Amino acid sequence: MSAPADVLVADPSPARAGTRSGRRPEIEGLRAVAVLLVVIYHIWPRRVSGGVDVFLMLTGFLITGSLLRTVERRGRVEFGAFAARLSKRLLPPAALVLLGVLGGTLLWLPRTRWYDTLREVFASALYYENWSLATSAVDYLAAGSAASPVQHFWSLAIQGQFYLLWPPLLALVAVRRRWDPRMAFLGVMGLVFAGSLAYSVLRTAADQRWAYFDTGARLWELALGGMLAVALPYLRPSRAVRVALGWIGLAALVSCGLLLQVSTVFPGYAALWPTGAGVMIIVAGVTGSAYGADRLLTLRPLMYVGKISYALYLWHWPIFVFYLTETGRTAASAKGIALILVVSFALAAVTTHLADRMTPRGTARSAALGLACLLPVLATAAVWTVRLEDQAAEKGGIVPAPAMAARDRPQTYADGCNQVTQRDEVLTCRYGAANPSRTIALVGNSHAAHWFPALHRIADANGWQVVNLTKGACALSTDPQRYQGKAYPSCDRWQKGVMAELRRLKPDLLVTTATISSPFERGETLPAGYVRRWRQLGAMGIDVLAIRDTPRMSFDPPECVEVKGTEACVDDERRSLAAVSPAARLRRPPANVTFADFNHLLCPAERCRSVIGDLMVYSDKGHITATFMRSLAPAVEKEVRRALGS
Question: Boundaries of each Acyltransferase domain copy (predicted)?
Fold first, then answer.
């Protein structure tokens, strides 16, 4: 979000600015409309409105205008003063909200979510939350009680990175005294706009979820605002045209979230819709006409909402997440919506008032204030994180402790050896003996990957080697696969690379999943594409150990155990598994495939337990902890040796 007090532009003429001071009051109204769209769309229809794109454009507009004026007056970019202004305006409200999130986490979030929330608070405070979400492949609309209360800080992270990039970039142009700074700025921003927009279109088409949080795919929106700040004095349409532009822009902005599925097509060329709407409203300016959209945008209530828009954006999302967590709902009721709005507006008003009172004079004091506000956030999160880790290490009983179970994943994840959904490069990671007597390839999706700890232990004990070839949500199959209801082309490309790697590697045994467990109506299945892939491997001389998929729980086991205890956290095996494995019903199973089923160890007497003995079985609804998987190593080794014929 752009700094709320920065509404000055490069052209101070009364006809365009609306006041002799050169202020643009309609920008506060535009901010208000944008933030109201964000808040309403998040809480009610659970869509994305395009309002954040307007804020990005406004940030580029205001920051570029400010830098340009400084260069025109003094011939240079004043980095210290620039950083100090941003620090005292942006950091105190953000710090207050993050401290509030830490308090809300303690009060309302289950302990199983504390560690991840603390990690994201760090990312938010240090302005890299967008990259944290991108690498986690988080769905921004996956609100519900499982959403992070700070994931909306992704847009602030992009703006923070812009603040680091923009002044040095424009300072390089400003050193050439023979250049007109206005035209030089316009040229540089035009290049950034064109390059970033082209990248955004391509990246969005290839992997929209990554592009949504990618700074490179968003820079063009900020550059568009910057170009507008430079060019605005030369844009002088008639009053009638400006009146029309104002209403067209306002109508386009309000309708964007209704007509476009923003969360699935942005930020490519589709984001030109809301940013273009914002540009039209700014070009329209204060028309002086009784029929202009600016008459609406400059109404006092709307301008006040614009004034508190930064804090309102910061508060609305955590309030929404905490409401859903506390009530156990997946969507807000009518009364809930009203409550969320009232609390968000009240906190935004108080936060803005407190931040306005923090007005130290001097560059050094302003910068110090901003940094001092973040220190309690970082210190609290750091101490809390260390304490959680110490408690997990000290706590007897269940291993891993339920609060830390989500982190108890195969070593391959920490090593970066499981390919993410966005990429198709084959990552080949080897574990075990350098000169092995046997080589085992582990291939498939995350339900194949969670068998790694058992295989790794077996390999270490026998002088073997495990080669990890896994990718999120990409099972070993000839069928075109889908991810979150959409085509998954990176999986298809990855599989081609994997088959080429297997031809070269020629492992003694390939381990993968044999079925797909499912809690839905279709139940457990064995896709025909699995069998076709196994036959292809057989033609390559590769034997396969196909392990029946593990059950999927109807609840989050670590959270359930933390709240209700072990005895209450049991599920029916038949909920996600068939009475007889589909693999056992194959009429002509491939000769190179050995089938294995370990679910009797996870679900004794067909009851799937969250904790067996003193071991936490599940790290989430569908994945096994690395600790429990290592305990299965003897049983897994028996089946591996059977498949190897030894």
Answer: 26-349
